[in-house]
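Q: Predict the bound structure with 4'-deoxy-4'-aminopyridoxal-5'-phosphate.
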Amino acid sequence: MAVQQYVYFQGGFVPAEDAKVSVLNHAFNYGTGCFEGIRGYATAEASDVLLFRLREHMTRLHQSSHIIGCDVKLTVDELCDLALEVVRRNEQHGDVYIRPLVYKCGTGIGVTMAGVPDDVTIFSVPFGKYIETEKGIRCSISSWRRSSDNNIPPRAKITGGYINAALAKHEALANGFDEAIMLTDDGSVSEGSAENLFIVRNGVLYSPAVSDSVLEGITRATVSTLAEAELGIRTVERKISRTELYTADEVFLCGTGAEISPVIEVDRRKIGAGVVGPITSRLQTVYFSAVRGEQPAYASWVTSVYKSAAVPPSVVASPARVG
Ligand code: PMP
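A: Predicted complex:
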């Protein structure tokens, strides 16, 4: 029999089928929420699930909330405890994806956020590949520009902002590509629909600067650290022009969902030899072992689901609803 699934919702754990919002909900109507995506990886012997860079994700959730004016009543540590607890309650032992959201939960008409209450919800689902990571993917430059800091700030993971990503991804798939690469308003390379971007030129990694309308990705930071420490390759953050993609030795996208996804073609032009490049491949090897807790040097990046302490009762505000 399937295990009853729980969602953290309105201050307690409720059966997944009861975690529902009204059609009048502010965030549903206006996109006034922010979220995170966190992966959990089963260890090789499947005895545990390790959440990757949990604290960094919850810290970014706080920052996104701060940018859009949501008030998260839970601390970063409490959010971490709750994320671990969701996976435990759902008795998940394979690879998972955890989605915490902070959102405006009022039901009045009008976009003002003043006085509109906030809620936090966290759910977890089994999760495999989001995007191809072995053979390499084919990308196109999107006709949709990346939103910018003064319209819908990409630095915050804002629910409503993902229409920008959805339009780009949909267009790319409809045109027969695997993923979209988006340009900034001024026409330089920004990022994939839900991934950061790197290129390799003459043994150096380049990634668009944080001022180029990117989400400040946690995988992006991870890749830079691993490249420097394990491969002796430095990352330069700077503007990247569209045609630098065509002539780069290697291109790859990275993100929690996408992991490290080699790009072998952009706008029907081969990248390098049109196969997965050697630096991308070496980064993948070290990344995939770090996320499963197999690299002692990076043990602090993973948090054990089944060896962590139970969530303190004070964090679950409405114990009557605890399932
Ligand atoms: N850019 C966008 C727009 C994203 O949605 C994501 C996925 N969160 C990323 C980049 C990669 O960020 P991270 O590595 O923190 O998951």
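A: The chain has two domains: 6-127, 137-296.
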